[in-house]
């Protein structure tokens, strides 16, 4: 029997032991945030949102208009359509006796994050096994390491510690559940897999629109590593239908599939898409890679509505930064299809799901780590694979570098979490 435990040895139940450790560890790490108050945009989706605190009306009200329609930003920021996120906040409100219990709101965020980590663990486990990662045992251990690394990323404090940003966790959670339906053993059962995958993905994009970028990543994986392709395309029928239903509902609610022209954006309307991308490429490399993974300069401008400045002429540095991203994407795709490289696939996932931060479409903000919450899962795969390679070259226990980085990141996360305790910074 092939071993599948944390350190080897036959154990059919070990994935659930690993899942339990990840779940409890994540909750313990973020438990201090349960006592936090409402910060930044939190009041807009709670006490200042007439939809969430409505005493009457059914579930349909959350699907009939935009996320901020019932707030003071309704006329300026009406490009968000997130009915599942609104519904989750309304359920918190009703469960607390028609009041906004901040402890219950934050506890819900922590639990959602813990479930995201679980979904990431099981999804990564299947992805590694399907991609032919060494043995089933090593795939299980590596998936556990990657999920732990994802759980402690300090940049996630912004997402977990703010009530408004639960949209990111809901979107990733349902997105990964949809992916599990595609990967799972019942993927060949047409009606079953198509229905579950479609429902999960519909809930994902109704939590946050940008999770639709996860779909091309799922397709890329199937093209590169797909087994029994003739049987595995059925789940995508359900996903495709869910996207069409969402598009219809969004258009009915907002009157546009993309951002309406009157929506507030960070860039002036005269700035072209190419200029936005070139201006954003340099800060993307510095902020979302170097600052997030190494320098840990997390959210350096709390008082500013836009964290990353995008001003002036992109110049040579902007062009070189964009070319570096473009070439890295091309190399990753080559390695993915030529050598079936899982780390290359992780880099592709990161670039695809983070592409909106390069502003090809003006998304209304200059930068924040919550925008790459989903993308950080792909980045985790790349970093984890590199740390594993370092461990093997050192002839030490292969996972020692990952363990050390997880421990270091956990310490930074605990310290950084306090930045989100209140608006008094």
Number of helices: 16
User: What kind of oligomer do you see?
Assistant: single chain
Task: Supply Rg.
Answer: 21 Å
The amount of helix comes to 55-70%
SSE class: mainly alpha
- Name the helix and strand elements from N-terminus to C-terminus, one letter apiece: HHHHHHHHHHHHHHHH
Low-confidence stretches: 1-13, 300-307
Number of strands: 0
Strand content: under 5%
Main pleated sheet: none
Gap between N and C termini, in Å? 56 Å
Which overall shape is indicated by the principal axes computed on the Cα atoms?
globular
Average pLDDT level: 81
Would you give an account of this structure?
The protein is mainly α and 425 residues long. Helices cover 60% and strands 0% of the residues. The longest helix is centred in the N-terminal third of the chain and has 29 residues, at 102-130. It is globular. α5 packs parallel to α16 (400-417) and α13 (315-339) packs across α14 (342-353).
Question: Layout of SSEs?
Answer:
Blueprint: H1 14-30, H2 42-45, H3 83-95, H4 102-130, H5 136-152, H6 157-161, H7 166-183, H8 190-205, H9 214-225, H10 229-232, H11 234-254, H12 273-295, H13 315-339, H14 342-353, H15 375-393, H16 400-417
Sum up the structure in keywords:
single chain; mainly alpha; 425 residues; disordered N terminus; 16 helices
Briefly say what this structure is.
This protein has helices at residues 14-30, 42-45, 83-95, 102-130, 136-152, 157-161, 166-183, 190-205, 214-225, 229-232, 234-254, 273-295, 315-339, 342-353, 375-393, 400-417. With 425 residues, the chain is mostly helical.
């Amino acid at each position: 029997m092939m071993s599948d435990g944390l350190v080897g040895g036959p154990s059919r139940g070990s994935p659930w032991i690993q899942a339990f450790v990840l779940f409890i560890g994540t909750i313990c790490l973020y438990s201090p945030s349960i006592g936090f108050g409402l910060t930044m945009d939190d009041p807009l989706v709670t006490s200042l949102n007439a939809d969430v605190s409505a005493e009457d009306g059914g579930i349909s009200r959350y699907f009939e208009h935009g996320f901020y329609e019932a707030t003071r930003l309704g006329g300026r920021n009406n490009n968000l359509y997130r009915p599942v996120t609104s519904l989750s906040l309304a359920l918190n409100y009703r469960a607390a006796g028609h009041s906004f219990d901040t402890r219950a709101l934050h506890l819900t965020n922590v639990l959602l994050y813990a479930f995201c980590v679980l979904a990431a663990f099981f999804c990564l486990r299947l992805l590694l096994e399907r991609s032919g990662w060494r043995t089933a045992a090593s795939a299980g251990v590596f998936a556990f390491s990657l999920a732990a690394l994802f759980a402690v990323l300090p940049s996630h404090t912004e997402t977990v510690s703010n009530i408004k940003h639960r949209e990111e966790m809901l979107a990733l959670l349902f997105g990964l559940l949809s992916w599990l339906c595609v990967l799972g053993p019942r993927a060949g059962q047409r009606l079953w897999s198509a229905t579950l995958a479609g429902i999960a993905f519909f809930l994902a994009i109704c939590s946050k629109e940008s999770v639709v970028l996860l779909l091309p990543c799922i397709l890329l994986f199937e093209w590169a590593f797909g087994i029994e392709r003739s049987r595995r395309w059925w789940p995508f029928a359900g996903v495709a239908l869910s996207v069409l239903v969402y598009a219809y509902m969004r258009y009915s609610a907002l009157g546009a599939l993309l951002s309406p022209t009157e929506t507030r954006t960070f860039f002036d309307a005269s700035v072209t898409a190419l200029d936005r991308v070139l201006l954003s490429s340099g800060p993307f490399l510095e902020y979302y890679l170097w600052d997030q993974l190494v320098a840990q300069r997390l959210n350096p401008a709390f008082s500013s509505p836009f964290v990353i400045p995008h001003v002036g002429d992109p110049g040579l540095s902007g062009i070189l930064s964009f070319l570096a991203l473009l070439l890295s994407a091309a190399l990753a795709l080559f390695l993915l299809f030529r050598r079936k490289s899982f780390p290359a696939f992780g880099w592709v996932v990161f670039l695809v799901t983070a592409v909106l931060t390069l502003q090809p479409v003006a998304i209304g903000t200059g930068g924040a780590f919550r925008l790459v919450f989903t993308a950080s899962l792909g980045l985790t795969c790349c970093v984890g694979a590199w740390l594993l390679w370092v461990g093997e070259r050192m002839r030490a226990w292969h996972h020692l570098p990952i363990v050390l980085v997880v421990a270091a990141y956990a310490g930074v996360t605990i310290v950084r979490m306090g930045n989100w305790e209140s608006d008094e910074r």
